[in-house]
Design a protein that fits this description.
Strand order of the largest sheet: 1-4-5-9-8-7-6
Order of helices and strands: HHHHHEEHEHEEHEEEHEHH
Helix content: 40-55%
Structural class: alpha+beta
Largest sheet: 7 strands, mixed
CATH superfamily of the largest domain: Bira Bifunctional Protein, Domain 2
Shape: rod-shaped
Low-confidence stretches: none
Amino acid sequence: MLIEELDILKNTVLGEIDLIQYSERKKLADIRVRVFGKNGTLTLISKGMRDVEPQDRPRVGALINEVRNAIENSLAMKENQFKNQELNEKLENEKIDITEPAKCQSKGAVHPISDVIDKMIDICVKMGFSVVEGPEVESDYYNFEAMNIPKNHPSRDMQDTFFINDNILLRSQTSAVQAREMEIRKPPFKIICPGKTYRNDSDSTHSPIFHQLEGLVIDENVSMADLKSMLTILMKRLFGEDTTIRFRPSFFPFTEPSIEVDVSCPTCHGKGCSLCKSTGMLELLGAGIVNPKVLEISGIDSKKYRGFAFGFGLDRTAMILNSIGNIKYLYKNDIRFLDQMK
């Protein structure tokens, strides 16, 4: 009885496989389950071997193996035929121009400093500022003297830059651009000056080459209240609405009075961490009311006009926003660091 069932099963299944077309290729999987599955036809026949007479078991067992091999070989041949047919269709329909360069899928990211510059410019432009630039190789006059820092003044020690000769140097601050603009613009005006600056200074938070963004507003009746209001809005837009701002008195030759501005640490939100040295606050920029001497040097009537100025270290701002512990990471071009900026 089993021998007849095996012959019928073999002929029936092989006939089904032979009739399957490429569009019906999913039927091959159905046949495999129906024949070899847990409750498949051949599986159940194999389990019935215990009821076969001992003398017939070798013959029936050999026939079961023969049927299994025949069906598996037929399925494999049909599957291979369909795979080749599928490949031929792809070769016909999908043409690749191997002469073109490969398309790189890896995506880069904006450098942290460039990202901060873009954000700061976007915020300031929306507040009515114009963006101006100036030369990085500057004269002593615009870099120092026009900013009320005469020769041999002690405050120059804080801006020890790189001199080409006695009069030409690499600018130590973008205030030099402000000095140039005050000579050619008529008040009122609002400008920001982003760019590279240079000082002989190097440690974990300072670099000989760094970036600044300085702002200047000249108008009638400008007050410290205007400066504090503008900086508060700017800080909250840059670091978030929950940012706390603190103003401290300070000294700069080109502003009077002068202030230092601190913001709450965006990493710990004022609770204290390694970035803010457990203080909860971070020193970020200097600002103040423009010294009347600076206005007069540039040809602006200090009795009619007043102004305020502020200056950011953009590298430090990038470090704060991205929780970067050492400024040198920004300049090493280490791909492991840059990948994290994505």
